Every structure is written in structure tokens, then in C-alpha cells.
């Protein structure tokens, strides 16, 4: 029987995993500088092969593939990860072939196109896809406080 090896932490997850990732965007004023925010989280396990542990590991791989840093350090510059094509934002999440189209408001897109920073957050713990803004905010704070997230800063090219 051939040996199987676990994927490297910096190897981006494939499109099957990314299909369960949800993205939320927002704009935050950080001391007079507007920062576009992009938050990524995975929905809870739905299929027989999914588990919270596998989701956590997949989100850690996603964070590693984008070179995101630990929550208790300054968010590192992660290269040019956001690209605008035909007026729509796409995220280069580190996969050799695939990119992710990010649904975002006109204000978010406008801000990103002006060259303002984009702070990317990857939360390891799953959250329901239908979570409202308050629940998502509480979940992000909880993940931050427990170290169950990674972050970084990018700019549109």
C-alpha cells in the first residue's frame, strides 16, 4: 500500500475545501486611515468527511499559503493578493491554478482600487454561513482572543 503524506502547511487547499469558505468584507477607520477588511471563515461540517478538526487544519493551510502571521504580532505584508478584474475583486489565496471571487460592496471596491491597505483575516473555527454582522464580529474577537486566526496586509495591484 503506498504511503500518503499530509499536505504541507503552506500548501493551499483545493477548490473543494475553498467552496466551504465564506468571505465578509468591511471598512474600518484605524486612526484616520481607512482599511478594507476581508475576513475568511469556513461553514461548519456538513459532509461525512468533514470535521471541525479538518476545517481548522484547512484554514491553517489557507493562512499558511497566504503567509499570514500570528494574531499577537503585527500583521505582515503578504504580497499582492487582491486583484481587480473587470471591476471585481479576486483573491489570490496561494493556489497555483485557482483564485476566489470576493463579493464586496461598491465602497469596499472603491477603497481598494485607491490603493488603501486590505487587512486579511483567516479564522480557523467554523461559523454558520448565515451569521449576521454582530455574530461574525463576536466570532472574530473570540478567535483573536484564543489565537485561532492569522492575519496580514495586502494591496490591490
Task: Detail the topology: elements first, then pairings.
Layout lengths: L14 H4 L2 E10 L2 E10 L9 H14 L3 E2 L11 E4 L2 E4 L8 E2 L4 H8 L4 E6 L9 H14 L2 E6 L3
Parallel strand pairs: 2-7
Antiparallel strand pairs: 1-2, 3-8, 4-5, 5-6, 7-8
Structure explained in plain terms:
- Strands 1-2-7-8-3 form a five-stranded mixed beta sheet. Strands 4-5-6 form a three-stranded antiparallel beta sheet, with no helix packed on it.
- By secondary structure, the protein is of the alpha+beta class.
- The protein is built from four helices and eight strands, in the order H-E-E-H-E-E-E-E-H-E-H-E.
- It is 25% helix and 28% strand.
- The chain has helices at 15-18, 52-65, 106-113, 133-146, and strands at 21-30, 33-42, 69-70, 82-85, 88-91, 100-101, 118-123, 149-154.
Distance between the termini: 46 Å
The succession of helices and strands, N to C, reads HEEHEEEEHEHE
Mean pLDDT: 90
The whole-angstrom Rg is 15 Å
Structure classification: alpha+beta
In DSSP terms (H or I, runs of 4 or more residues), the helix count works out at: 4
Strand content: 25-35%
Work out the helicity level: 25-40%
Major sheet: 5 strands, mixed
Q: Got a strand count?
A: 8
Amino acid at each position: 500500500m503506498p504511503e500518503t503524506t499530509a499536505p504541507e502547511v503552506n500548501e493551499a487547499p483545493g477548490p473543494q475545501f475553498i467552496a466551504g469558505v465564506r468571505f465578509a468584507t468591511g471598512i474600518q477607520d484605524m486612526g484616520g486611515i481607512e482599511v478594507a477588511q476581508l475576513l475568511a471563515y469556513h461553514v461548519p461540517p456538513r459532509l461525512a468527511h468533514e470535521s471541525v478538526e479538518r476545517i481548522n487544519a484547512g484554514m491553517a493551510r489557507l493562512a499558511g499559503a497566504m503567509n499570514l502571521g500570528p494574531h499577537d504580532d503585527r500583521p505582515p505584508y503578504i504580497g499582492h493578493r487582491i486583484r481587480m478584474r473587470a471591476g471585481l475583486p479576486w483573491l489570490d489565496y496561494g493556489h497555483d491554478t485557482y483564485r476566489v471571487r470576493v463579493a464586496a460592496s461598491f465602497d469596499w471596491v472603491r477603497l481598494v482600487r485607491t490603493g488603501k491597505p486590505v487587512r486579511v483575516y483567516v479564522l480557523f473555527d467554523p461559523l454558520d454561513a448565515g451569521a449576521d454582522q454582530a455574530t461574525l464580529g463576536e466570532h472574530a474577537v473570540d478567535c483573536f482572543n484564543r489565537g485561532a486566526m492569522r492575519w496580514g496586509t495586502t494591496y490591490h495591484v
